[in-house]
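Q: What residues go here?
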């Protein structure tokens, strides 16, 4: 999907994603000392808004103008710089935390995005990636049905091979999808995500 497709998807609904942060984002990043953060491919900004509410100065970037406008309205006066731009080409600020949540791209594009996000981290900064895992296609529920845009934690680490980093977490993780969730069905079900948290030395 390109930016126009996502604009149409966001415009067709009052709220595509939940207002609260992704559960892995909330669980993994709540203990970090606030600084400057980047939410790359932020969508409607749920993670950016959560981070800003915890004291982070956030730059939130997405290529959908509709999503960015919605995030800006929802955020109110929170300290977020909203930008419309492509994750592969937009100029990125130097930050203490970079978040890539469900940025599902082809391998070459994913590698570019991951390396760009890691590259703007200050020493000691955290990169956090959560994505629909490759195994979700056959073992889980929801998410893209195109295997070329699914990936694993190991893929993310391979993208950064040779980088000076410390891996805090890199694994496949279970996420419970409830009937009220955007991907929900009649009963609760399981989705499988790739979760990576690492620190740049």
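A:
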């Amino acid at each position: 999907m390109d930016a126009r497709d996502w604009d149409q998807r966001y415009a067709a609904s009052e709220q595509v994603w939940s207002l609260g942060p992704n559960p892995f984002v909330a669980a993994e990043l709540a203990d970090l000392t606030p600084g400057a953060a980047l939410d790359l491919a932020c969508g409607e900004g749920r993670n950016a808004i959560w981070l800003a509410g915890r004291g982070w100065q956030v730059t939130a970037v997405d290529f959908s103008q509709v999503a960015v406008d919605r995030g800006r309205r929802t955020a109110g006066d929170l300290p977020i710089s909203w930008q419309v731009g492509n994750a592969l080409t937009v100029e990125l600020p130097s930050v203490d935390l970079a978040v890539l949540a469900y940025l599902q791209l082809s391998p070459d594009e994913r590698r570019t995005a991951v390396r760009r996000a890691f590259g703007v981290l200050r020493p000691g900064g955290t990169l956090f990636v959560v994505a629909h895992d490759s195994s979700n296609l056959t073992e889980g529920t929801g998410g893209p049905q195109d295997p070329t845009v699914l990936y694993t934690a190991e893929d993310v680490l391979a993208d950064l091979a040779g980088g000076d980093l410390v891996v805090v977490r890199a694994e496949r993780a279970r996420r419970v999808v409830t009937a009220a969730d955007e991907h929900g069905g009649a009963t609760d079900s399981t989705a499988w995500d790739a979760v990576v948290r690492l620190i740049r030395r």
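A: Context that may help when evaluating the design: Residues 3-200 form a domain with the Rossmann fold fold (CATH 3.40.50.150). The mean pLDDT is 92.
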